Amino acid sequence: MLVRIESSDNNRIKLVRKLQNKKARDAENKLVIEGMNLVSEAIRRGIKTDFVMVSDEFDGGQFLEDIKTGDSVLVCEVAASVFNKITDADNGVGILAVIDKNAITPDDIGTLPADANVLVLDRLQDPGNIGTMIRTAVATGYELIVCVKGTADVFSPKVLRATAGMIFDIPIIYVSNAAELKAMMSQAGKRFVVTTVDGGRPYYEEDLKTGIALVIGNEGNGVSDEVLELADVRVTIPMKGEIESLNAAISAAILMYEAVRE
To answer: Do 186 and 244 have their domain in common?
Structure first.
């Protein structure tokens, strides 16, 4: 189904602008996704889509023609000059969609299988790192991501693009502090595995295959003291030479892949 939007004052244009703010995304339980990859993945997976919006200069090929002529998704076509003012992409992707967030509540945590692994992000800030960790969590079979307050918004456009569509494959929840994190993971029966630069056991000497909450700390400051105190196990990735630490996403990948190592 196709409609034409002529005015920048249109309510759907206003909604896209509004959802550029995290508080609005949380309040509306919706987000904006940009680019053919994310939009096509969301529609293919049946995620509730309010509408797709395209620039009138965008060539979406057969995919766009199919949804324009179908009845399942509303497609709004707007002038390129209007579209370029509401998109976050640096080079203009030409297509976006407003979709429902993959919502999860604390009550859902108790339904996690006993052997399920959880990735905990403690105040991570870099969108590329966060996106890479989400992709790796999906690839290694992790079943939940918990973000401690202070972690960048995982539903921001930059993080969403970095996940390459994997954001749709894993539920994500935020917690306010270490006490809330402890209560949630205790309810789920998870062992806290916390990464430290030194003072921990080599990661390959610990069982990181199942039933853990793996904590990855802030890129510059590591895991906070409050979260570090929750650790059942502290692990370190041994390094040679004078290297002090690895990139957060690389460290997370090394540790998460223990879940699939024979």
So the answer is: yes
